[in-house]
Structure formats: C-alpha cells, structure tokens
C-alpha cells in the first residue's frame, strides 16, 4: 500500500527531531538518574539535581553522588529532627560547595547566646551543571 505522507496527519511531536535544543524532543538519556537515599537526576539542558542525608556528626565533608561537570551552584541543608529530639530547638545548617565533587555542611545551635556545633543528621540538596 502506498501512503501519501501529506495525508497521514502526524502530530507536531512526530515531526520533531531528538535533542536538547528548542523544538526538539529530549531522549530518555537526558533524564539519567539514581533515585536512592543519596541520588541525582539529570534534566534536559544540563541541570543536575542531587540529594542525600548525612548522619553521625556535626560537621561533614562529603562527595556528591556524581560530579557536576561545570560545578555546583546551590547547596541547601536542613537539620533532621524527630519528636523525641528536642523539636523546640532551633539549629542552623551552613555549608559550601568545595568543588565539582565535594561539599561541606555543619549543624550548629545557640546555647546561652553561644553558637556551638551540634550533632544532627542533615538532609541536603544541590543544584548545578
């Protein structure tokens, strides 16, 4: 049977090429991920989201699940707590991205006006390219 392509009525998506530029459809390899406790997700356009949890200390130098090809730009940490772990306590988490592969986070609290390191698990998220 001969099909006249002018009458197939393909939707616009069927006419697009594969890639990451404007008007292209992303290939599934653009969404590589590891959705574990410490994981990552690649998004089209090169943005990478990474996350994890650190336990057992107040200061952590840690490696990202994968290196950022050009570097990380955002690091957010949040102290983990439970109902039995002084939920009224206000603790802070500070840190920085050291390089494409590593970061530093520390948990602290203020006692009688004096800041001190405070052992707390930390949930963290990082964005980069």
Automatic annotation (TrEMBL):
What InterPro entries does its record include? Gp53-like_C
Residues annotated as domain Putative tail fiber protein gp53-like C-terminal:
43-129
Query: What protein name does the entry list?
Result: Tail fiber protein
Q: Which organism is it from?
A: feces metagenome
């Amino acid at each position: 049977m001969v099909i006249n392509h002018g009458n197939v009525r393909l939707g616009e998506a069927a006419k697009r090429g594969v890639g990451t530029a404007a008007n292209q459809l992303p290939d599934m390899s653009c969404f590589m991920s590891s959705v574990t406790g410490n994981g990552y997700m690649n998004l089209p356009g090169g943005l990478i989201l990474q996350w994890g949890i650190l336990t057992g200390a107040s200061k952590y130098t840690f490696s990202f699940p994968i290196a950022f090809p050009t570097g990380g730009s955002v690091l957010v940490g949040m102290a983990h707590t439970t109902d039995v772990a002084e939920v009224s306590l206000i603790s802070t988490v500070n840190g920085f991205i050291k390089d494409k592969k590593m970061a530093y986070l520390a948990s602290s609290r203020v006692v009688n006006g004096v800041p001190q390191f405070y052992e707390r698990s930390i949930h963290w998220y990082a964005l980069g390219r």
